[in-house]
Structures are given as C-alpha cells and as structure tokens.
Design brief:
Layout: E1 8-9, E2 14-19, E3 22-27, H1 29-35, E4 38-43, E5 50-51, E6 56-62, E7 66-70, E8 75-80, H2 83-86, H3 90-93, E9 102-106, H4 118-127
Antiparallel strand pairs: 1-2, 2-3, 3-9, 4-6, 5-8, 6-7, 8-9
Length: 128
C-alpha cells in the first residue's frame, strides 16, 4: 500500500497535494483497496463552486460498497477529472496519478492544519 510522503491526508481517506494555491484531491490507496473494484464515480460539484471542508466532492461506487469523497479544504473548484466518468477503474489503477478527482483553489481559510502527514495517516490505517 502506498502513502506518498509529499501528500496530506484526511481520516476519511482522501489525499491532498498542495501546489502553490491549488489543492489536488483524490482517494487514497487504502480507500481504493478497501472499496475493491470501482465501477462508478459521480461528481457532486461543478467548476466554479465554492466548497468547504467536509462537503461531498463525489460518490464512488464499487462492487462492494459506495462511499462519499469529502472535500478536505475550503476553496473554489477550478478543475474536475471528468475522465473518471468513463473510466472509474482509474481509482483502482492509479489513485495518486490519473485518478485525481478535483483541483481546488485554496481559500485564505483553507484549514490545512486539519490534514495528516503520510506517516500519521499510514499509522491510522494500520490501526483500523
């Protein structure tokens, strides 16, 4: 299982990559493994939407379960990975590269202090 060190994580299994004032968000390797074969991704936001930490970004359905993907930062949606609609399996195949879900321009009150580093998140996953 991969826990890239350059990313931040939420206990709800989303990863965040901060680049300048933009946060790229996706589902962690731990989450995609627990879900098993992802068969459907429904985006719950649109480009231009103002979002808050804890809002629902997407719903991911697998052969085993469905799960909400939560927004980890406050900001504005600037890009969505619409390829996931046609190829939801990317979440299983490439959770940290091709399967990013959204890019969010960080608000001044983005609340990054609530995110976990890779080591803390990995330990949290092992304890579950």
């Amino acid at each position: 299982m991969l826990f890239p060190k350059e990313l931040k994580y939420q206990k709800t299994d989303e990863w965040v990559k901060i680049e300048g004032d933009t946060a790229t968000v996706g589902v962690s390797d731990y989450a995609q493994d627990a879900l098993s074969d992802v068969v459907y991704v429904e985006l719950m936001v649109e480009v231009g939407d103002k979002v808050k930490q804890g809002d629902t970004l997407a719903t991911v359905e697998s052969v085993k379960a469905a799960a909400d993907v939560n927004i980890p930062v406050n900001g504005e949606v600037v890009e969505l990975n619409t390829a996931l609609s046609d190829s939801p399996e990317l979440i299983n195949e490439s959770p940290y590269e091709e399967a990013w879900i959204a890019k969010i321009k960080l608000a001044p009150e983005a609340r990054l202090e609530n995110l976990l580093d890779a080591e803390t998140y990995e330990k949290y996953c092992q304890e579950r």
